[in-house]
Amino acid sequence: MIRTVTEQAAATGEQVWQVCVVRNRPQLDGLAQRVPTAVTWDDLVLAPAQQRSLRAIARHVRQRSRVHHGWGFPGYGVSALFTGSSGTGKTMAAAVLANELGLDLYRIDLSGVVSRYVGETEKNLGRVFDAAETSGAVLLFDEADALFGRRGEVRDSHDRYANIEVSYLLQRMETYTGLAVLTSNLPDGMDEAFRRRLRFVVRFPFPDAALRAEIWRRAFPPGTPTTALDLDLLANLQVAGGGIRNIALGAAMLAAEAGESVGMRHLRDAALDESIKDERPIVAAEIRGWATENG
């Protein structure tokens, strides 16, 4: 079938954009960590409110040129704060957005920037934004507490400088041509005045039992051989999505090593391994019924 001129132009534009993205990667690769984005909305298990907010972020990125430049609305940059405990899906959400938008995702550890570049934080943040401008990459500023946690009552020159660093970062986020996301493990770790400067705030709560069961259901790729997995029992374990996926992978390794399908016994053993890594003891009731002595 012969493609229309519009379709050909769109395809050519997409090819040119992908070339620009790839060519500009070396500039950012030396400043930040590129994160894989092979995840989609189907991989992300969140409550409807969080899903709605994330889809709104994607919509704002796609339509901002038309709305701000074409229709005259003020502003331009799309910035967001993702808050929630470790493993609740903040990084995965950023990866889903990058995949949806056809952009690279780069992670910048703010704790490393602050600790390594004392007195030069703005300069190094500026390098990241400048390098990212030409590719429009999604920038994920992880561990924002390292920077925002230093902001508070001004008692000396160090406090004043910390405030300047925060203001500079937010100013660059507000004018950045791509999407810039801050992550924080502390829901109230940011001053309200700074929070208001961000266009979106998405809270990632610890998943309830129903969401945990759904995360377990999606944790195993279609090609994984499984036997008698009880999602309701698995959901009793008080771990977030990141921990669930780690346990599923560990159980798959145990089953593969034994030449067996993944079963509840493998998941029990993998959960115990994960608890040792996280230094979080598992309560017996959480894994009760996961496996019999011979199962």
From TrEMBL:
CDD domains linked to this entry: RecA-like_protease (cd19481)
Ranges of residues in domain AAA+ ATPase: 76-208
Coiled-coil ranges per UniProt: none
Pfam families recorded: AAA
InterPro entries: AAA+_ATPase, ATPase_AAA_core, P-loop_NTPase
GO terms of molecular function: ATP binding; ATP hydrolysis activity
SMART domains, alphabetized: AAA
Protein name (database record): AAA+ ATPase domain-containing protein
Lineage start: Bacteria, Bacillati, Actinomycetota, Actinomycetes, Micromonosporales
